[in-house]
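Dock D-xylitol-5-phosphate; give full complex structure.
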Amino acid sequence: MNKSAADRKKRKVLIAPSLLSADFMSLAREIEATGEAGADLLHVDIMDGHFVPNMTIGPFIVEAIRKTTSLPLDVHLMIERPERYIDDFIGAGADFVSVHMEASVHLNRILNHIKEKGAKAGVALNPATPVSCLASAVYDLDFVLIMSVNPGFGGQAFIPHSLEKIKETKKLLALKNPSALIEVDGGVKPDNFRTLADCGADILVMGSAFYLSGDYKALVQNLRRGKKQALR
Ligand code: DX5
Ligand code: ZN
């Protein structure tokens, strides 16, 4: 067994389908099917029309989602001044909360606040934001979210230099905060899933490739077995 295969055996990579690409007219059924398929987390994208051009949902819908599933809710805040809404999203049932480095002035205060409220605190980095920005925040976070597309929309192509950022983040965390996790979001597909895991990703978000796959359960099984082909 080579080193990366052995490492992979020890480390379970978590699959986090992003609801953004689900059928919102059948949201309850989609969420139920996501849980039945064996996903580990449910990724929920919150967009405000300012930090990103798109708009999605608020705490009220997150609360409804919480009542529909026991999957941990991974709430990705693509909003300006996220500190205004953190209590609302955690109150609504968020288990993981990530804020963008680019949108957070008092990042240390925000991360500690998320943790005090009982959720896991994450820092998301846009594709153009270097890993070196984490030099001080690294001590306060529970996970880093590497955006591998520009945030705002599902179905975009993976930005290749994200692989280097994952490796760099892995090195930084190994030195400064070894229990922190790396999440990767954007353009994750069956054919790059294993490469991303081998670079150090612990949580892989999958939106369009998951919800357009046609068979969520078979997709999750194939991802866990290391198969590369998309379904449909
Ligand atoms: C994009 C969102 C993602 C999105 C990923 O801004 O943060 O979570 O749903 O979608 P795919 O997997 O289709 O790139
Ligand atoms: Zn996201």
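Observed: The beta strands are 14-17, 42-47, 73-78, 96-100, 120-125, 143-147, 181-185, 203-206.
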